[in-house]
Amino acid sequence: MDKNKPFMNKRQTALVTGSGQGIGYALAKACAMRDIDVLLVSLPGEDLQARAAALKQEHNITAHYFETDLSQPENCQALYEYVINNNIPVNILINNAGIGSSGPFEDFSTQFYSKQVALNVAAPVLLTRLFIPLLKQQPQSYILYTGSLGGFFNMPNKEVYGASKAFILSFSKALRNRWEGSNISISVVCPGPVDSNARLLEIHKNLKGIAKKSVMTPDEVAAIAIPAMLAGKKVIIPGNINKLFLFLNRLVPQAIQLKIIRKEMERQAKMGVKK
């Protein structure tokens, strides 16, 4: 296929990384519910074929799947080539794949941090660079990044994860400024705590008060994120409580914020929380 010629298919297709489970799969489902074809991308062993088949049957869409580890740069290139070689008219790029972590900085290996930065930071950059030329060919295209509310805070025990999400927030805003007024709309969704897997569900059960009420399900996040992306919203904060947290962050002195954060980190340490 000639990479300089536009795809002729008029249907929309969303490429969703990290769509084997959690927020990624919920985002893919939210797209399928809007009659948008999907390309599911995730690690091998996450039953992508069955998930793609289920979306195809339930929503009468075209559902592709591609199993790979995007922390390896050559696999980002391989994904791009798969799209080109199969003439998949991607006009929505959802950079969702990522690795979380919570615990003392020195408890994680250099290998872990290398992979975390590669997946959380490098992969979205590489995929964006690869797919921008294709997105420019479409009448209207979208890029959605999955950030985190943690990207607005400086949180001990989540130094690298929080910094990676702060990068995504800054990166998406800069790209938005670059492509403002073009056919490419760029958004970032920054959820707070999400019950994205069984382990986090167990952890969040121990939360109390307003913190517990701030927890959302992946489907709740996706139900807010996809319509907001299609509407061209720049920064998407799911949930009124999370919006309140962000508002208070601008008002509460840093010293008080640090005390609150340290108390939460101590609570998690006592529970043996690590992710």
Give structural notes:
The structure is a single chain. With 275 residues, this protein is an alpha/beta fold. Strand 4, helix 4 and strand 5 form a beta-alpha-beta unit. Helix 1 packs across helix 8, helix 3 packs parallel to helix 4 and helix 4 runs parallel beside helix 5. The N and C termini lie far apart (42 Å).
Q: What is this entry, summarized?
A:
Helices cover 51% and strands 13% of the residues. The protein is built from ten helices and seven strands. The longest helix is centred in the middle third of the chain and has 28 residues, at 110-137.
Give a topology summary.
Layout: E1 13-17, H1 22-32, E2 37-42, H2 48-59, E3 63-67, H3 73-85, E4 90-95, H4 110-137, E5 141-146, H5 159-179, E6 184-189, H6 198-204, H7 209-213, H8 218-230, E7 235-236, H9 240-251, H10 254-271
Parallel strand pairs: 1-2, 1-4, 2-3, 4-5, 5-6, 6-7
Helix pairs in contact: 1-8, 3-4, 4-5
